[in-house]
Task: structure prediction
Amino acid sequence: VTRKRRKPQASQEEKSRGPYEIRQSALSVLHSQDTEIVVAGPAGTGKSLVCCLKLHCVCERVPGVRCLMVRKTRESLTEAALVTFENKILPVDHASLANGGQRRVRQAYHYPNGSQITLGGLDKPQKVMSTEYDIIYVQEAIELNEADWEALLTRLRHGKIPYQQLLADTNPDSPIHWLKRRVDAGKCRMIESRHEDNPLLYKLGEWTPAGKSYLAKLDSLTGPRKLRLRFGRWVQSEGVVYEGWSRATHLINRFHVPLDWERFLSIDFGYTNAFVCQFWCKDHDGRLYRYREIYHTKKLVEDHAKRILELIDLEAKALSYRQNPKLPIENIRSRIMPQMAICDHDAEDRATLAKYLHIPIVPARKEIRPGIEAVQARMRDAGDGKPRIFLMHDSLDQRDAWLVECKKPCCTEEEIDSYIWNEEKDVPVDEDNHGVDAMRYMISQFDLFGKGFEAPSSAPAAERKPPEQPFRLDGNSARPSRLFGR
Ligand SMILES: Nc1ncnc2c1ncn2[C@@H]1O[C@H](COP(=O)(O)OP(=O)(O)O)[C@@H](O)[C@H]1O
Ligand SMILES: [Mg+2]
Result:
């Protein structure tokens, strides 16, 4: 007997999202006709909701309007803004959802009256910039650089509504961020949004149960992260370890890593805290690029090891499909297999990894100061206008929902800004440092080798001898032929 599966019917309540209770700051956003506005404030105040709502209202009301919803990368838009838009704003059976495919590949929402909201990322600027718009909504504007912002401004001339607007939302960043400066200079209007503006958190003059538990989470943050996400302040982190770090320089767009680049893993173990595995590759000039990352709590090393192999398989398939259809997958797979995993020192966890990965598992050099200095040195311009370390955007495998909920960093680049020295300035504060530690292990392995650093004394004696396959900088370091049949 075959049973027809019926689509669950949406209840009347679900069909009409809302009603939204629109409070002070949100109301100003909806009414504002300024050319540049940014809605700024702590996490969870309803910034994204009101921006999405504005686009939707304008599109519903005026035929033929063209809007753009954009973020630094198209992929990051899927995770956040589109979820809010589809789950909180668009009615369940809205016509624009009928076609356009999955959220991840969707190009636009088309309204029956001819209005549309195009989706894009500044990692593919030609797509975004080839059209004109009435309203552009930039999510997490601090990720952009000022040139991106100014380029977007030139796209505002579709002229279907009486004003044209670049509307943005953001959590605060440093007080010298270009966006804050633009606000201070009077070029862009800032509308400050507060937790009290969100009816889920605050009602009839008191915090709701959801509000209390949300604020408790934000209260448990520390340092600049807390000042920004809990109190919405544009503050500089005091004593940042990686002062030379800049999103604009070191975070780069994704590209397919050539087959002949060497690859490595660096790993910081964790269960309650995040387990981090960074996938690195090295170009022919010795520059290092993190191109993939696992950053997740509460999973076993065994499961992470399996996932690492899966990710390598997936990449092999992608490379085979795109570039080398004639090469057998097995061949590609063996070529992109990392040469070694540079790891934290837990012996049992390392044994687990070795069992699955079949590559040399090398205990990391853990000297903190020299390691940090080596990373700092790589972040500096190497004399040719480029640093020697890069993180590719959107490297994260799966965003850990628990970390998202706690507003903790969810990948290495989210840690770097608030990785700070402790008061005595001898070591960094030991918190939210899982990705930065893995990054330091990686760089130490390369740059401290042969510079007289002993293997760490905390490692068991058997491990204190140098790894079996000493790592050399010349790029021809011994690849075990059983793994790399070349
Ligand atoms: N005016 C509102 N009415 C109903 N729910 C709201 C309102 N503002 C925010 N919310 C809800 O609060 C949550 C956080 O809102 P969001 O826009 O994602 O915050 P932010 O972008 O400031 O971090 C979302 O679940 C959203 O639906
Ligand atoms: Mg938001």
